[in-house]
Amino acid sequence: MNHPAPETGFQSAQTEHAGVAENALDASLQPSTRRLAAIASVLAALALVVLNTSITNTALPTIAQSLEVTPALSIWVLTANQAALLIALLPCAALGESFGFRKVFRWGVGAFLAGTLMCVLAPTLNWLIAARLLQGLGGAVVMALAVALLRQVVPSHQLGAAIGWNALVVALASAAGPALGAAILAVAEWPWLFSVLLPFGLLVILASGAIPVVEGTNRKADLLSMALNAGVLGSLVIAAGVITDRPALTAALLTISAIQLVLLVKRERQKEAPLIPLDLLRSNSFRISVIASVLSFTGQTAGLVALPFYLHHNLGQGILETGLLMLPWPLTVALFARVMGHLSGRCSTALLCCVGGVCLATGLTGAALWPLQANLLMLVPLTMLCGLGFSLFNVANNRNMFLAAPISRSGAAGGMQGTARLLGQTAGAVIMTLLFKVLPAGSAPQFALCVGASLNLFAALVSAQQPMTKAIS
Taking a C-beta distance cutoff of 8 angstroms, is the pair 434, 244 a contact? Predict the structure, then answer.
């Protein structure tokens, strides 16, 4: 029999599956050094996954030259990793709930390290793409289960702070990745980009022993549902890659994806714990958070992709100057992440998300319309406003998403949260591709910034549908 859909967010997370909740809270009372080791292992694994993506972006031209392939083919080094992440998030969340979060987390870190070692040894592009796929599968486990694991270690009233730590690590790793990659490439060959991750990954494996053991449900994996999920999202990723050059193939892939999605929903809707968390999506609070997340990440990605083009092509800035002018955005996210984590436990989610969305939209609009040619440094407070708005929106929205789910379904909530993020990022990149295709190169970046602002305003309006009640701290 299906569980009733959680409708009251925090209350359902406290009342449903009380036995699991008590185990998780008991785990939070373990000695502080063990608790800190558990938290550190989860956050360090997340940092490795994010660094792996950001340092590889920097190295693509070098990798293409070293392996003697075209720049277009080298993009598959990125695409393979992103596709594996997107396809595997929900299945990895389901495996975590079934076999236990700690066990699957350690499997995931092990797969990530195996893929990283393959990257170090890769003699050809095909080998490297296969290694990046394996890295993506391992990374999907970490991304899907990170907050679920933290939820087992910290009391529920500290969940906002834990999500703040999560956002802090992601922002710092994203900001540090390009600089770290450039520094390594200045003194070593590109395989060292991956070699430096290996010892830290081994430390994560050792520290993960401090994570409390909570038994899984022992549900059997539904391989057909996982295959349909891979078909739905894999078709979308490929369609996004060929949308400007092969419209007929894009339409066919989107049709195939839609058909598989219908089949998957029909197969999963009667299950107690479906792969696609339909049980959670029946909750108005959870559903609003997911929709708002997709919209916000779409708008943010469009802005992050458009801004370097605007600085470089329209304002004549070099690569170094462009990087420095972009840096205040992720640094502001990192600076305010913990503050926002505490704030999200004390203020209404709807209010925080609305204010965050408006701040991000205002920053993007200012970057597009302000006469930066006369005063380029004005971009710094505008990008800081973007970072502040995104931090405020993201932490509050994610906290609400997890509190709208029972503790036993934290893995599914994490998988859905990661899927929403990656779908938004993919959609943002597709929007940029289409705008560059249909608009003059000089006007496309500014128009994209305005589109990103509009999407974040829309995300704020969607978030306003959440009840304006004070969060329970």
Answer: yes
